[in-house]
């Protein structure tokens, strides 16, 4: 297009910036996905179906998505609580706890997995008290959930926190002036307003959990059919030089992740229907 | 009597927001709490509502001491500056909120909400969400919501602060009509003296947490209790003069002050309309140059520069201006028809008070 026909933009370099962005996005995100799909197409439909519906694979998906869902739900709840406490209350050590929330971001996931596994093992710090009660945190699906909750927490907290900070307390006061008690105000006014953001935090924690690998391999024990997550199965297939088997499972993960993100987006849109 | 405050004070930590304020509001009154920001007026409103607890003193609503009564139980309607509508609820649900909590029957809620919506010109908007409304509509929803449970008193915090100037005027008139129709005791906070004068029956003026004066718009304009009120309500030229042999002087300006000892300082104020200006340089006693003319619609504001460098403000209609042959830059003469001793002297002729809330200006100022 001739430049004189374009509307003048205040910020210079839009074309260049846009070009670079698209290029980077393509190389880093779209190209690998395309390659993955291309590679998967080398399989016949029959083989593909056999690979992805093998019992071991099905068990792995179930664990990955199930544990991720539980962990993301836990994070949405506790993350919201934590964000609320951090924003709304002044207490000694608040800044320290605030900083601590980012810890799972910074900590290499392998370190987290190792630590958690040791803590929850039958002889571990916590495990020695929990095991007799029948709560086994290491080498069980519960361990997977614990690890996923750990890595996902910052997403839930950090998404909600800035929104909470901008919420005016006058809406709560308005509810009170109309006779509403604290609980009533929370359920009918505060929670519905925060719901879209809590959902976003949930979605991020969920997405993170589906992709998590490092922390889980240590705490889960990776027992096929029991505590083996889908990403670990991919690694196993690769180690067996079964590249196509790995690709098939990866394709399934990719597909479900996209569907889930789309669903959550729809849900967010619905929950924020009253926002401008 | 609807509401009474008795020696109410409020401190936030070290900061004292309100100091020993007492006043009462009659049933059905439309009262303005007026003052510059930080004057304590919003804190007073919030204490009436129960959103703040007084540090000292008592608040009474219809004769009952309500200090220990929570905001939920005071049966007040509060309209917040930014309306604080529940954005997750439709207009209908917003207005019905208080009624639902008071467990009205569904059919009664329906009737009451629709009645208010019609009265407020909101019919047909039941299903809209707050973000789909205009500023004026939002405000009306907020007021309808506050009024729905039939409160003892309607409290509004800067009700016209968040809308643009054009709608402001309509809303003021609308509020006056509404109050006339519903007769509910209404107290509103404003920093705009014009708004307070136009809308309210009585005005309570605050500055720095103190109650400066309470009275009808006319009273506070014509008989300001002190310099702060005089300058806050309307425009006033204020001069600080030194008394010499019974006359207070500032440059060429002289005011008789027979009662005041030599060397003392007095502060004198006069409204711009008290300054009579003529295009004939010899008609009146004092000379000046007309520096600027500001067009304020039907009235004009004139800025006079005296030979001593002092600037005074005068006011007149367009017709007078034309008749007297005035224009920017001409030499004029003027006189001061009446003035008020604001502080310093003990003149029995003039209303005065000791409260001096502003530092002495280098030139006469208007607000």
Description:
Chain A is built from 13 helices and no strands. Chain A is mainly α and 276 residues long. Chain A has a single domain (51-275), classed as MetI-like fold, CATH 1.10.3720.10. In chain A, helix 3 packs across helix 10 (182-211) and helix 8 packs across helix 10 (182-211). Chain A is globular, with a radius of gyration of 23 Å. Chain A starts with 13 loop residues before the first helix and ends in a 5-residue tail after the last helix. In chain A, 33% of the residues are buried. The model of chain A has no long low-confidence stretch (mean pLDDT 87). Chain B contains nine helices and 20 strands. Chain B has a six-stranded mixed β-sheet with strand order 6-7-8-3-9-10, sandwiched between helices. The radius of gyration of chain B is 25 Å and the shape is elongated. The longest helix of chain B has 18 residues, at 165-182. Chain B is 25% helix and 33% strand. Chain B has 367 residues and is α+β, with helices and mostly antiparallel strands. The A-B interface holds A 168, 170-171, 173-181, 184, 188-189, 192-193, 273-276 and B 49-51, 70-73, 76-78, 80-82, 84-89, 97-98, 101-102, 129-132, 145-146, 149.
Short account of what is shown:
The complex is a heterodimer of chains A (276) and B (367). Chain A has 276 residues and is mostly helical. In chain A, 75% of the residues lie in helices and 0% in strands.
């Amino acid at each position: 297009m001739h430049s004189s026909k374009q509307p003048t933009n205040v910020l210079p370099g839009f074309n260049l910036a846009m070009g670079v962005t698209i290029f980077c996005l393509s190389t880093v995100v779209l190209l690998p996905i395309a390659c993955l799909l291309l590679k998967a197409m080398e399989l016949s439909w029959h083989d593909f179906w056999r690979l992805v519906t093998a019992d071991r694979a099905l068990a792995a998906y179930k664990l990955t998505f199930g544990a991720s869902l539980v962990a993301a739900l836990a994070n949405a709840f506790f993350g919201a609580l934590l964000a609320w406490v951090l924003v709304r209350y002044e207490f000694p050590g608040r800044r320290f706890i605030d900083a601590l929330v980012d810890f799972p971001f910074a900590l290499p996931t392998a370190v987290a997995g190792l630590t958690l596994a040791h803590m929850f093992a039958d002889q571990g710090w916590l495990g020695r008290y929990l095991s007799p009660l029948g709560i086994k945190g290491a080498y069980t699906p519960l361990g997977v959930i614990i690890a996923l909750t750990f890595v996902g927490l910052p997403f839930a907290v950090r998404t909600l926190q800035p929104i909470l900070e901008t919420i005016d307390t006058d809406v709560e006061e308005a509810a009170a002036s109309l006779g509403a008690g604290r609980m009533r105000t929370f359920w009918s006014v505060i929670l519905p307003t925060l719901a879209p953001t809590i959902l976003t935090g949930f979605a991020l924690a969920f997405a993170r959990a589906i992709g998590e690998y490092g922390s889980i391999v240590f705490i889960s024990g990776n027992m096929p059919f029991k505590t083996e997550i889908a990403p670990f199965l991919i690694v196993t297939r690769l180690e067996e030089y079964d590249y196509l088997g790995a690709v098939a499972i990866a394709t399934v993960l990719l597909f479900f992740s996209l569907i889930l993100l789309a669903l959550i987006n729809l849900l967010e849109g619905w929950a924020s229907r009253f926002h401008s | 009597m609807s509401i009474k405050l008795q020696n109410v004070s409020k401190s936030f930590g070290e900061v004292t927001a309100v100091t020993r304020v007492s006043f009462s509001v009659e049933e059905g009154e439309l009262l303005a709490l007026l003052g510059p920001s930080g004057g304590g007026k919003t804190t007073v409103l919030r204490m009436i509502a129960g959103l703040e607890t007084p540090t000292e003193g008592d608040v009474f609503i219809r004769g009952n001491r309500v200090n220990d009564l929570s905001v939920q139980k005071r049966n007040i309607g509060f309209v917040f500056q930014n309306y604080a509508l529940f954005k997750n609820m439709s207009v209908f649900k917003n207005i019905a909120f208080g009624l639902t909590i008071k467990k009205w029957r569904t059919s009664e809620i329906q009737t009451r909400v629709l009645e208010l919506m019609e009265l407020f010109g909101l019919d047909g908007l039941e299903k809209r969400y707050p973000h789909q409304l205009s500023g004026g509509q939002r405000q009306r929803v907020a007021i309808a919501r506050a009024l729905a449970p039939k409160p003892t008193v309607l409290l509004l915090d800067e009700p016209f602060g968040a809308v643009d100037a054009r709608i402001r005027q309509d809303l003021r008139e609308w509020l006056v009509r509404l109050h006339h129709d519903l007769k509910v005791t209404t107290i509103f906070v404003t920093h705009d003296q014009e708004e307070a004068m136009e809308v309210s029956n009585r005005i309570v003026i605050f500055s720095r947490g103190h109650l400066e004066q309470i009275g009808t718009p006319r009273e506070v304009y014509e008989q300001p209790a002190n310099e702060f009120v005089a300058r806050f309500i309307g425009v006033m030229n204020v001069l600080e003069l030194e008394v010499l042999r019974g006359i207070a002087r500032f440059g060429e300006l002289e005011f008789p002050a027979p009662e005041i000892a030599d060397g003392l300082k007095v502060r004198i104020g006069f409204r711009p309309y008290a300054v009579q200006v003529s295009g004939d340089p010899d008609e009146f006693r004092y000379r000046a140059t007309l520096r600027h003319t500001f067009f304020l619609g039907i009235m004009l504001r004139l800025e006079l520069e005296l030979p001593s460098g002092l600037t005074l403000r005068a006011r007149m209609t367009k017709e007078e201006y034309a008749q007297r042959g005035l224009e920017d830059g001409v030499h004029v003469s003027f006189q001061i028809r009446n003035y008020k001793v604001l502080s310093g002297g003990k003149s029995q002729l003039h209303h005065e008070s000791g409260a001096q809330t502003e530092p002495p200006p280098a030139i006469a100022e208007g607000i």
